[in-house]
Design goal:
Nucleoside Triphosphate Pyrophosphohydrolase; 4 helices; seven-stranded mixed β-sheet; two-stranded antiparallel ribbon; about 190 residues
Length: about 190
Amino acid sequence: MELIYPAQIAPPLKGSDTAAANEMLPVVDPNGLVVAQASRKFCHGGSRPLHPVVHLHIINREGMIYLQRRSADKDLLPLMWDTAVGGHVSYGEFIVEALYREASEELHFSGFNPVSICSYVFESGVERELVNVFAAVGNFHPVPDGVEVIDGRYWSTGEIESAIGKGVLTPNFESEYARIKDKLLSLL
């Protein structure tokens, strides 16, 4: 999926405080058409407009999946294990641009060839995201940034499956893993 931006800059959603926002996010329909923009705070508020995010699963040649441990300072799900890379698409950015930016920021990770896995809508009590899922396969050595991501390591599928439902992994990762596990392993 790719975002389709309007010819003119999309208007901010009513109620989104653009003056205080340090980052504006595109608000989209389920097909990726950008219909407005809103601050991150607004997107995580009560109205929960649909906004795009990227996820990158890193798989080594032995079939192990790299997970990141979220910082204690994260607003959502601190200290839980999550998808290797995940982040919001900034207004004006395209999906793959956001993917490379987030991978670099969180894991100092570059030089990979992303494979598109799927896109889907994820809803929680806090937000509504259009998740764009990618994978990278190889013998990579990501390095957590120490700010957003405090740790990271490769997990076997058995380790992941035994941790599901025990409050170790983020709920988003757990549901996404169930959705794409077979697709990830088919890349080996």
